[in-house]
Write a structure and sequence with these properties.
By secondary structure, this protein is mainly α. The protein has six helices and no strands. The protein is elongated. The two termini are 26 Å apart. The protein has one domain. The model has no long low-confidence stretch (mean pLDDT 90).
Length: 165
């Protein structure tokens, strides 16, 4: 393995570690968010969740750049990704793109909506529908985390098994 490939693989592992950090910390902070009864503490947990979520774009960028570098150094062509010897890698790419789209659209949207509901609930006369809306957003976040973990597990399986498709 060349020095450049080794360096690229190390960066790829760093990017994957950043994504795993978000996916591990997210549900833990989410659980704390749900168990907390005080609205201000919920706001703090929501801010912490958004802060941790800021790691994911950097991790994704590192994964994309190091992945392209790895493919270039290993002479993997686009045709081998879809219908060739590296079809498993093409499937990983598709799953990663789905994961990116979910992470860039669904989670931030839920986060913004929850922040808005929490701000309303922290007012002097909070709306009664706030708790129901918050419960609905919490359920959406749980489903989002679940799908993200399923995709990550599929990506890991494809990495380990590398099936001939």
């Amino acid at each position: 393995m060349s020095n450049w490939l080794t360096l690229s693989v190390v960066f790829h592992l760093i990017g994957a570690g950043m994504i795993f950090t978000v996916l591990l910390a997210g549900p833990i902070i989410e659980a704390n968010f749900r168990w907390e009864n005080d609205v201000r503490m919920k706001q703090h947990a929501a801010k912490l969740l958004r802060s941790v979520g800021l790691l994911s774009p950097f991790g994704a960028l590192i994964l994309i750049l190091s992945g392209i570098t790895n493919m270039t150094l290993l002479h993997i062509t686009f045709t081998s990704l879809f219908g060739g010897s590296a079809t498993w890698l093409g499937l990983k790419l598709i799953l990663f793109i789905i994961l990116l789209i979910m992470g860039m659209t669904i989670s931030p949207k839920i986060s913004r909506q929850r922040a808005s509901v929490l701000d309303q609930m922290n007012q002097i006369n909070p709306p009664e529908s706030g708790t129901d809306r918050l419960a609905s957003l919490n359920a959406q976040q749980t489903i989002s985390f679940l799908f993200q973990w399923i995709i990550v597990i599929l990506i890991l399986l494809l990495t380990i098994v590398r099936p001939r498709l």
